[in-house]
Design goal:
Radius of gyration: 25 Å
Largest sheet: 8 strands, mixed
Shape: globular
Number of strands: 20
Helix content: 25-40%
Strand content: 15-25%
Length: 588
Amino acid sequence: MKLLGSGLVALATASSVGAFVLQPKAVQVNKNNVDQPKIGELRMAADESFGFATAATKDLDLLGLPARPGRPIKVAIAGGGVGGLTAALCMLKKGFDVTVYEKTSAFARFGGPIQFASNALSVLKEIDDKLFDRVMEKFTFTGTRTCGIKDGLRADGSFRMTDDSIDYLWNPDAPADWFVKFPLKECADLFGLPYTGVIDRPDLQEILIDECKALKEDFIMNGNPVTAYENKGKGKGVTVTLADGSTVEADVLIGADGIWSAVRNQMYNEGGIKSTSKDGKVRQGCKYSGYTVFAGETVLKTDDYYETGYKVYIGPQRYFVTSDVGDGRVQWYAFFALPPGTKKAPSGWGGSTRDTQSDPEENLVEYIKSLHEGWTDEIMTVLDATPPESVEQRDLYDRPPEFFRSWADGNVALMGDAVHAMMPNLGQGGCQAIEDAYVLTEVLAKTKATSMIPDSLQEYYRSRILRASAVQFLSRLASDLIINAFDTPWSPHDNLGKSWKSYLTFFWKPILQYVIFPVQFAFLYSYYPSGRMDDIAEKLRDRWLVTHKESAEAAFDRAAEGFVYESGPSFFQKSEQPETVLAAAEIK
């Protein structure tokens, strides 16, 4: 498939939404050669250049970097998830004084895989080479292999690899297993980037924490989250209130505390964290998406294990996703259009327990299989290999783009799920949080005085709003189309797809394959501050092919000997996690 035309379209689109960020080069200065009188003169000169009267600088501090005189900017970050930890590392590397306030009392190893697309890998590389290398050591590539949409009813059950052509229209013997394949590899190659893949959240967390601690040992405060803040005015910072009632002072507060953000709750006056409407369809100003998702994980060797990355099985009113997540594991998600609160399984992260469900003894694998009656045996094979007690569930909420409310309030700004929570269909939630962290750091690094912080935070908002909103829209659109507009595609050889949606799905196929998906993925990958990495991408892929097969075969051998893989909580994001769950995990 030739992607040049679509790539140019995506590049133009990305340019229009502010996808690219200028990267000032650091200037190395030997601090030992700069005496204090000279620093004073530079400060006075800076005061004059900013238009300040010397007497007025008492409340307006100059902010320095290793190559610029002035004190470090003091940043408080609410939340130690992927976005918060990435922001902390970015800022520590710039010389900022950073402290993360995390609600969990301690960190422990649990959590499911998280997808990093090519755009996020480029940002990680630009942040720090060592960080990128460590992530790659734990990474499982999916974008190097076939990924796409399969026919949930016509796939023959053998996990075979077939073409996604329309030969079946005139040839009744032609396989119709694959509806359309995603151009992940082609779009990554267009920009010379590493390929999309996954990393276990605990591995990523450990890497980020290690790298941050190497720069500031006590950068994180556990068990005492941010609950409120008070803007003190231009140049005067922010007072941050913690759960124990204590307060800390900072120049900037960053709300990276997830979809049910305390910082967001105050900024937008949302009526309380997780405050829920009577019908359950609005929670803290966030509308229920209309979908609930079940998730599970198993070790399973299928005939297409080494040839496929992730697959989306489509059919009437639902879809089922499987993905290779490394070490022989297959992770799956089942999406259903059900009312909020239709709880069959725990939500993960300790958010609920099985004895609080409507029927804690119900076999959840059998329940999900019953909702896929008549679907391909490939889905049944995956489900049958999954321990029923490991299945989890979460109602999905997402937010509309904040076009009419800034992400910043004085000396406070939001990032990640706190401001642009999105559906998981494109795997861009964590990727966009990483982009936020990088752009926010670059903007603050250019800020030379505390009085300029509010304007800098507004610049960050303007830099990110269009691109993040476009990704939010595409993520939501994917669910809405699959559930509401897609069905089993029409075929002249059977009666499996005869609704108007089936005909519509059939006619969408060439548009999706040759226009929409190439443009979509090229747009997503068009933000790449690292520049091209062609040689690196190829070497990483070649090395991974060997290690991936070794680890997978070892896992398959253990499974054949009777070893049962138990996935620890949770497949879902940290937003559902109570304050004590990590401590409890450590005690175990």
